[in-house]
UniProtKB/TrEMBL annotation:
Domain TonB-dependent receptor plug: 122-236
Domain TonB-dependent receptor-like beta-barrel: 347-885
GO molecular function: siderophore uptake transmembrane transporter activity
Protein name per its UniProtKB record: Outer membrane receptor proteins, mostly Fe transport
Entry annotated with the keyword Ion transport: yes
Annotated GO CC locations: cell outer membrane
Record's bilayer topology term: Multi-pass membrane protein
Family listed: Belongs to the TonB-dependent receptor family.
Keywords linked to the UniProt accession: Cell outer membrane, Ion transport, Iron, Iron transport, Membrane, Receptor, Signal, TonB box, Transmembrane, Transmembrane beta strand, Transport
Length: 939
């Protein structure tokens, strides 16, 4: 009996276990947009559980082993409004037609940038914008800054190309208008900075390229950047890589472009991803390109590319992502073009705003390395290289739910960077009547018959008698040969080595208690960096397609004196010398509380204490002293003025520490609309250019000033089925702006920076971003900014054209309009899609900008039109024809001042222009038209 009873109990137990397992079911269906197109990568999450699923390329999903019951389910995908609903899971339950409405401003998308917790964009008290993957694929690849011009309120100057660009917002721009164009903002990849440090010709855009491994871009303008970014209170631009992909697949994209000068661009992108088994996933991809350049050059302007990957492990209550990047890329940057007519600039000297580059032609030279002259070391110099940027980076992102409303996240990255510049800097007009044309060679007395020969053919181009120039008389040609425009180009062979090894870590711990979401953590960044810069003069014809000149002094009955080498390089290493190294540490502690006061009102308050240490040294230098120069030969004058280290060093070791604050409030009016306001007080510590550009052969006995940024903003976010809007009124003030000019001393033939003066600016403005879909298949986007930027207190140092200080003065421009900030700037985009056909047209308007703080020269407004048409031939193959700057606008993006060697924008005062109405000056035009065909294959 007992045995029967035991067997019965066993059978009952087994039946119970079977029944328990039988209570599990599957849930399947498809997710489409309102036009019935499948949505790939939409995430389904069963709230209050760890059950989730992701749609495949057909928009389909199937989730197994779900216990029976009723669940609240959320479906989300970037670019679509989140769908919340309740479903009863029975055996083999399905929903065949789940539809997501378009969220054209991504207000319901979860954003991770500029906030300590992941929130829907409309629920954050920040000015946040998002560019999703589909929009990124419509943008022609002219570089990071060019892409960011699509984000409202962001001023970008991409006229130089992919690098040496400028990006800023809300008038927080002053130091970024030097040669550190990302001074106040941070460029990030997956939540960590691309680079920790900046200095002249060393900005994060050197190490960043956009390709299919960018899934989306999130941008924060000012505001919470003061407490969420490392020394970047002006904003955050975060490029986010692809995440989990449940099915194996990818995309290959081939682009071929024809540019204004008939030059071509070829680029191939690829990305592949999928599961690796047991909750492991991966993505890998990158690009290769070869670009002949948007303007006339005799070399390949850009080439090579990058490879990126990530591997993701999903845990029950967390995840681990390992990622890496290998960038090995060559590119260059466009310089200015000469113009006349201050009121309505026109290209001068046979140049053209669309096609002229004024870069040195390709050649290879060996210039003595002034750090190791005794060993006979040289640096190879070829201006066709431009900048060779290399970045090897590895990192990890770890997240874990610890239970009991605790969680932690840790972001880590190590990178090794190298940027080697070999290019020309400056391209000024230097008349043959100007003694500078000869004395800049380094020769002691280059007066008499000067001969100019083509370095390629060796043939004589012109012979000049300059015997009268010291008495103010013009130089005279001997014979029939002449130089174009009776001038040479004032340019330097600019060689730079920049290296950095960097490690960064951001750790945060989160705890939810009742209505409070607390976050605390540490951000650490360490960079070991070095810089070497050497400038030599280059003899180049002053014409659109310039030639290198071999120059010599050939007076009768006297030995021939070579003013340049066989490549046209002169005054080896005599124009500029910097050899420095630095160790930078950035340590920050932060805390934040997001308090959900009611269902409608959220408040977040945050503090960030930051300590930054700059420790390093800078070599003192002097002209190399030896009769006959480096080679001991008195007839080779080009090596007589090499600047070399003396053995003495000027050390610096300074700490900058400060407390930043940001507080915001978000009020949900209803499901469709919310209001927010925020007050922030941030700080910007100096970058390394403060030490590297200043203190020439003098002790570095004073640390730089910390700039203070105060911002207040009030905005609205509104989203309906056919209309979405975000709009923000802002006020920003920047204090302690260090300002110095880059100048040339004609007496010593040396380049120097003027002493730093500290100033203040203020900007009041309105940003907006709106999307309207008046009828099916058509989308209208309008974003921009209206602002009033003022230089409230502003002094400029006037060095009077020499390094001597006896005649120096300061000029007061307080109350003038802040330069290089438009009062009006906007984008208008119309996009139409019908079945497999898509068409779009974009109009960018850039308003007038003052060219300097003197407000003596104004850059005119301009418009740029882009257009595209695309067609989906099959499920896997699509093609897009894109035209950028289709009407070939010759808008001017920048102004460098008078067309003379060492001049700067601030030198073109009203008095100067009035006294020199016919003087030429240097402007930087926008990039010309380019037409591209892009073919995509998805699998």
């Amino acid at each position: 009996m007992n045995k029967i009873k035991s067997i019965s109990l066993f059978l009952v137990g087994m039946l119970s276990i079977f029944c328990v397992y039988a209570q599990e079911a599957s849930y399947s269906g498809t997710v489409t947009d309102v036009h019935g197109e499948p949505i790939e990568g939409a995430t389904l999450h069963f709230n209050a559980s760890s059950i989730y699923g992701i749609t495949n390329t057909e928009g389909a999903f199937e989730i197994q082993n779900i216990p029976l019951g009723t669940y609240k389910i959320s479906i989300a995908h970037l670019g679509y409004k989140k769908l919340d609903f309740e479903a009863e899971i029975t055996e083999n339950a399905s929903d065949k037609n789940l539809i997501l409405e378009g969220d054209y401003l991504s207000l319901q998308a979860v954003v991770v940038t500029g906030s300590f917790t992941s929130l829907e964009a409309k629920n954050t008290a920040t000015s946040v914008s998002t560019l999703e993957h589909k929009r990124l694929k419509q943008i022609y690849p002219q570089g990071t800054a060019s892409l960011l011009q699509n984000i409202t309120g962001t001023f970008t100057d991409a006229s130089a190309g992919e690098v040496f660009t400028k990006v800023y917002t809300r008038g927080i721009s002053a130091a970024a208008e030097d040669d550190l164009g990302w001074y106040y903002v941070t460029l990030q990849e997956d939540g960590l900075p691309v680079s920790l440090v900046q200095h002249s010709y060393y900005s994060p855009d050197l190490f960043h390229r956009v390709d299919l491994m960018t899934q989306r871009v999130e941008a924060i303008r000012g505001g919470s950047a003061s407490i969420t970014a490392m020394n970047a209170p002006g904003g955050i631009y975060n490029f986010i890589s692809p995440g989990i992909r449940n099915e194996f697949g990818g995309e290959v994209q081939v682009l071929s472009a024809l540019q204004h000068s008939g030059n071509t661009l070829f680029k191939v992108d690829g990305v592949i991803g999928g599961p690796l088994g047991s909750n492991w996933f991966f993505n890998a991809g990158g690009h290769y390109r070869k670009d002949e350049g948007a303007r006339d050059v005799d070399f390949t302007f850009s080439k090579r590319g990058q490879f990126k990957f990530n591997v993701i492990k999903k845990f029950d209550k967390g995840s681990l992502k390992l990622h890496g990047k290998l960038l090995d890329d060559y590119t260059n940057r466009w310089t200015g073009v000469a113009a006349t007519n201050w009121e309505n600039p026109e290209a001068a000297f046979g140049q053209n705003f669309n096609s002229t580059s004024l870069l040195m032609p390709e050649f290879t030279a060996a210039i003595p390395d002034s750090r190791n002259l005794q060993e006979g070391a040289t640096n190879s110099f070829n201006p066709a290289q431009g900048v060779h940027a290399k970045d090897l980076a590895f990192g990890a992102d770890f997240f874990q739910d610890l239970g009991n409303n605790w969680s932690l996240q840790n972001l880590i990255k190590y990178s090794n960077k190298n940027a080697n510049w070999q290019t020309s800097i400056s391209n000024a007009f230097v008349s043959l009547d100007n003694p500078l044309a000869y004395f800049i060679s380094g020769a002691s007395f280059p007066i008499g018959e000067v001969v100019f020969r083509d370095t390629q053919s060796g043939s004589e181009i012109a012979r000049v008698n300059n015997a009268g120039i010291l008495a103010g008389e013009p130089a005279e040609y001997i014979g029939n040969g002449t130089l174009p425009n009776d001038a040479i180009m004032g340019t330097s062979a600019w060689y730079k080595e920049n290296k950095a090894s960097e490690w960064m870590n951001e750790f945060s711990l989160h705890k939810k208690i009742a209505q409070h979401n607390f976050t605390g953590g540490l951000a650490l960044g360490f960079s070991d960096t070095s810089l070497f810069t050497q400038g030599s003069f280059g003899y180049v014809t002053y014409e659109p397609n310039s030639k290198m000149l071999q120059v010599s002094l050939e007076n009768p009955n006297e030995p021939t004196i070579l003013l340049s080498d066989e490549n046209g390089i002169s005054n080896y290493g005599g124009l500029f010398f910097v050899n420095a190294e630095a160790q930078v540490s950035q340590i920050a502690a932060f805390m934040n509380d997001r308090w959900e006061i009611t269902d409608r009102i959220d408040v977040d308050l945050g503090l960030r204490y930051e300590d930054i240490r700059h420790k390093g040294s800078k070599d003192r230098y002097a002209p190399f002293s030896q009769d006959g120069g480096l080679d001991g030969d008195a007839t080779t004058a080009y090596d007589n003025g090499i600047l070399a280290p003396t053995g003495d060093k000027d050390a610096f070791d300074f700490n900058y520490n400060y407390l930043s604050f940001s507080g915001g409030l978000n009020f949900k009016i209803n499901k469709e609309a919310s209001l927010f306001t925020r007050l922030s007080k941030g700080n910007k510590a100096p970058e390394l250019n403060y030490y590297f550009n200043n203190f020439a052969n003098v002790p570095i006995n004073k640390k730089g000033e910390v700039q203070k940024i105060t911002q207040a903003e009030f905005g609205i976010k509104y989203s309906l089925s056919d209309f979405s809007l975000t709009s923000t009124v802002f006020w920003s003030q920047l204090d302690n702006i260090g300002n110095a000019n880059f100048e040339f001393d004609g007496d010593t033939n040396s380049i120097f920076y003027t002493p730093i003066l500290f100033n203040t600016s203020r900007t009041l403005g309105l940003e907006w971003e709106a999307v309207y879909t008046p009828f099916r298949n058509f989308k209208f986007l309008f974003n921009g900014v209206l602002q009033n930027p003022k230089a409230t207190e502003w002094l400029v140092y006037d060095a009077a054209g020499s390094v001597a200080v006896a005649d120096d003065t300061t000029v007061d421009y307080s109350g003038n309009t802040l330069p290089f900030n438009p009062k009006v700037m906007f984008n208008v985009l119309g996009a139409y899609q019908l079945d497999k056909l898509s068409v779009h047209y974009k109009w960018q308007f850039m308003g007038k900008r003052q060219g300097n703080v003197a407000n003596a020269f104004r850059l005119a407004d301009y418009s740029i039109s882009d257009a595209g048409i695309g067609y989906q031939f099959t499920k896997h193959i699509s093609a897009n024809l894109l035209v950028v700057n289709m009407f070939n606008s010759d808008g001017l993006a920048n102004f460098f001042g008078a067309n003379s060697f060492g001049a700067n924008a601030n030198g073109a005062t009203s008095e100067f222009i009035q006294n020199n109405p016919d003087e030429s000056f240097v402007v930087v035009p926008v990039l010309p038209r380019s037409t591209s065909l892009r073919v995509n294959y998805t699998f």
